[in-house]
Amino acid sequence: MKVIKIDKNQWTQGVDAARKSYQLFGPVKIKENYCFAPLQGTQQPDMNVVDTVLSPKSAVFPQTEKLLSATLDASKPAHHLMKRADTDYSPRAVIGIRPFDARAIDLVKLNFDTKEYRDPYWCDAHDATTFVGLAVNTPSQFDFSTSMGSGPFDEKGLDVLLVDTDSAYLAKVITEKGQAFMACAGFDQEATPDDVQKIEALKKTAEQAITTKVDTDNLKEKSLLDLHQAPFWDDVAFSCINCGTCTFVCPTCWCFDIQDETKGNDTIRFRNWDSCMSPLFTLHGSGHNPRGEKTQRVRQRFMHKLKYFLDKYDQGTMCVGCGRCVKSCPVNIDIREVCNLMNAYEPQK
User: Fold this and answer.
1) Dihedral angle over CA of 135, 138, 140, 145, nearest 10
2) How many alpha carbons lie under 13 Å from residue 207 in its C-beta half-sphere?
3) Residue 299, CB half-sphere, CA atoms under 13 Å: how many?
4) pLDDT value at residue 208
5) Do residues 106 and 156 lie in contact, with contact meaning Cβ atoms separated by under 8 Å?
6) What's the rounded Cα separation, in Å, for the pair 79 and 119?
């Protein structure tokens, strides 16, 4: 694996060179918070941000996305036909994505790119994207990624992994897409063996800094019905106010709604993020709601993340340990505690 050394004095110049061939996304400050967003003009990604409120999943799965358009105007071509909306799928790069967020996109791909069906919108965006990761040298108190199949230096889902060594970035080039990005940016100085050893030392220190341990080893063997009927769900859901914050900050939540907007003779079909924590999410046209109670919705969220996904795909849980839901929940519901409850649960005989 090739490792490139990037002097930070050359970083801005390289990013500017890359933006000539790529749409760039990176962490930027929006009002009082940091989020991943398209880099406008000469805007640079803020590489000093410890964490962003939202993950960069919107680079491939926008919060609002045009899917189809149609017109009833007979004077226009292809009238009365639904056609795919024009979308720019030119090369793009997400700079500064954390390893757990890249792992999350890999997990979400299991849902959008299957043997039976390929979601063209998600997959085309994913295929066009190069993921330039940034290792987490100093994990936050909410980070439990090492328990969930990821880690502060995890390379899964990344094309390049940047490691901050104060005066320089050491870039591990993982894929051909990553190599193409490095070449476009003009980064080509090969790192020394001492630099490579420095990466391993920083990795070891970062992994040791994560002291939170979440147990998942028993989840696979647990009976789905036993967990569904466990007595602790009322207690877990007691304080929930159904705000849906946990689902919107989660990098692996993929639920969406489809809506049509019509103006005159023209219609556009949109896909919008949705949340299983909303009472409207499962409301039938008949008026029946199979998850009309708060406890049912809270149970659904955790069962999906920690049991249904695990049973269906056998690729670990649908949680990467980023800790955003723990940090953002206004009533302090903690997925780490729920996971440990589920993992240790034994039904009474």
Assistant:
1) 40
2) 15
3) 19
4) 97
5) yes
6) 25
Nearest of 330, 310, 326, 329 to residue 318 by alpha carbon: 310
pLDDT confidence band for 32 (50 / 70 / 90)? confident
Query: What would the mean pLDDT of 165-182 be, rounded to a whole number?
Result: 97
Backbone angles phi, psi at 103, to 5 degrees: -60, -40
Predicted pLDDT at 265: 94
Q: Which helix (H) or strand (E) holds 80?
A: none
H/E element, 233: helix 233-237
pLDDT per position as a tens digit, 41-80: 999 999 999 889 999 999 999 999 999 999 999 999 889 9
- Digit-coded pLDDT (tens) for 101-146: 999 999 999 999 999 999 999 999 999 999 999 999 999 999 999 9
In this structure, are residues 322 and 154 in contact, taking their beta carbons and an 8 Å threshold? no
Which token pair is 325?
Answer: 């839901």
191, 308 in Cβ contact below 8 A?
no
Q: What is the pTM of this model?
A: 0.94
CA–CA separation, 291 and 299 (whole Å): 10
- Sorted by where each begins, the domain ranges of the chain are 2-209, 224-344
Residue-by-residue DSSP string for 18-68: HTTTSEEEEEEEETTEEEEEEPPTT----TT-S--SS-GGGGTS-SEEEEE
**Stretch 259-278: mean pLDDT, rounded?**
96
Structure tokens at 195: 């630099």
Residue-wise pLDDT tens digits, 212-222:
999 999 999 99
CA distance 54 to 250: 7
CB 24 within 8 A of CB 18: yes
CA 205 vs CA 51, 153, 208, 283: distances in Å: 19, 11, 5, 48
* Two structure tokens written together for 307: 């049991």
